[in-house]
Description:
Elements: E1 4-8, E2 21-24, H1 28-34, E3 39-43, E4 49-50, E5 56-57, H2 59-66, H3 70-78, E6 100-101, H4 102-116, H5 121-128, H6 131-139, H7 145-149, E7 152-158, E8 167-172, H8 174-182, E9 187-192, H9 194-208
Antiparallel strand pairs: 1-2, 1-3, 3-4, 5-6, 7-8, 7-9
Amino acid sequence: xxxxxxVVDNLPSFAHxxxxxxxxxxxxxxxxxxxFCRVRCQTGGKGFMDAGTNRFxxxxxxxxxxxxxxxxxxxxxESPGYGIKPSVRTQxxxxxxxxxxxxxxxxxxxxxxxxxxxxxSQVIGRVLSVPAVAKSLVASSEWNAKxxxxxxxxxxxxxxxxxxxxxxxxxMDLEQAFVDVKSTERHGFQILPIGPLLSLLWSKLRTxxx
Length: 210
């Protein structure tokens, strides 16, 4: 059997006899037995490695990190139009809350910013399903301040009678967006500063993960 070794910040003292290094058969064992624990490191048994991308969150922590009402997050999950589901534990039960991955956290953040900008649920769901957007969310952890400052989410929608209208979603710098705006007369544009917003969120994530 493959065992996982974790360094846990807030595991109950009776569970580890003074040591913060815990050996478990699988990551969710900690949560199933002791509730929420903040994991900082994990490995298959050969030293420790950074586990930032393996973090998992409850709804309350995501809401606090993003600065959104927890009730709105629940609405995102329970409304099919947004296309958001917790990927670690989908269903909540007694003593077993829904659990979200780091990628889920980034998707929820983008959904919240789009919601604040006036997008409807179906449009938000379509934006989140675009491969280029998913790729940018993952890549954002490596963006420096200069790169982040040049990343904008651009939603280009056809001004048409039919529903839903044709929609293009891109992540680009502002100069490229302005060129696109000047090149058409039959499209509306909405531009979101996704780089700076994600940069701020990553700063919070790294602080809470320490």
